[in-house]
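Field reference: sequence -> structure
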Amino acid sequence: MTNVLIANGNPNDVHLLVNLLAQEGYDIDIAEDAAELIDKVLSKDYQALILGTDIKGIEGLKAISIIKKINDKIPIVTITEDDSLETQRLARKERIFYYLLKPVDENEVKEVLKSAVSSQEKMK
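Structure field:
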């Protein structure tokens, strides 16, 4: 089973992603805030993390460095509305796998996630 964690503070994004990815056969877990995100990454092996930049309790891009310290092999896909150069720079600095801009394209999400999972499996 391919485990994917969605950590996003926007219920609409979570609903869209869960429906889309469940249809693709992924086993989905949801983290509603930073504490739950960290707890889940510590307790389960995920093949990918989809992280919104609006997660409760921490600014999304700052969460990346924490997650990378726990598991530096997990591919992180970020979803954001912020297309500023500063946000892009921070995302690259944290070595995210992919940077999705809202509104997300469903086909792009599916392809990115398939690629992320494949890259994670190659690292094992």
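Note: The mean pLDDT is 90.
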